[in-house]
Write the structure tokens for this entry.
Amino acid sequence: MTSLITAAQQKEILLWPKGAPGSEGKTGNEKLRVVNEDHVISNIHRPSITPYIPLKEKGTGAAVIIAPGGGHRELWITHEGYNPAKWFSDRGVAAFVLKYRLARDTLSTYSIDKDELADIQRAIRLVRSRGKEWGIDTARIGVMGFSAGGEVAALSAMRFDNGKDATDPVDRQSSRPAFQALIYPGGSNRFEVVNDVPPLFLVGGYKDRSDIAEGIAQVYLKYKKAGVPAELHIYANAAHGFGMRSTNKGGVAGWPERFREWLSDMGFLKK
């Protein structure tokens, strides 16, 4: 049974089986390059999620949709996607690695605010629509994003709805994430505290670019001023792109555990 679950959880699920809106006529294959142990993907026209579902006896009912980074040009999908997804799944949190379309890929016709946002919104709706099947509490589905993926995740936490009046049952689901975890996110100058915005977990490195290292501190202060729960970790010896690698050393290697503790403190891990 375990081997069947392992096999099933690593099979991609298309967000739109009949094709994503805005990708009509785009049939080019995905491109893959390997950098050390990282798979780097581009030319994405068929957005998907790859589920990592915990064993039933380990499941907490919480779930997180993970958006890897790559400057909106590509996705570094191993250390900012598959590695954290497996880590969270092993600890009872269902994880879904999002493969989203890329606004800054070569000759791309997509945009961040339309197509990339639509992909993560659809992922939230899709996971919510299958919550019972996957042992997920639909009130505890959140988002996590790294770098450019952090911008996409943050947008989903600012621009959401309670479901569309649609024939597609997936689109009738709410797109609001229950929480947001932004790991060295780009575009933080755009982040605003909106009505009913979900609580926030922020991680970054002191040695990152100033717009990120200082930007996330400013985002934290916005949330603090608005009275919305937020937690911020800035690691003194970390720069950009640390993600989750076996080679991470020192305090920054512990950020996933800090996030798990935060989920527990916020009540998202109750069975």
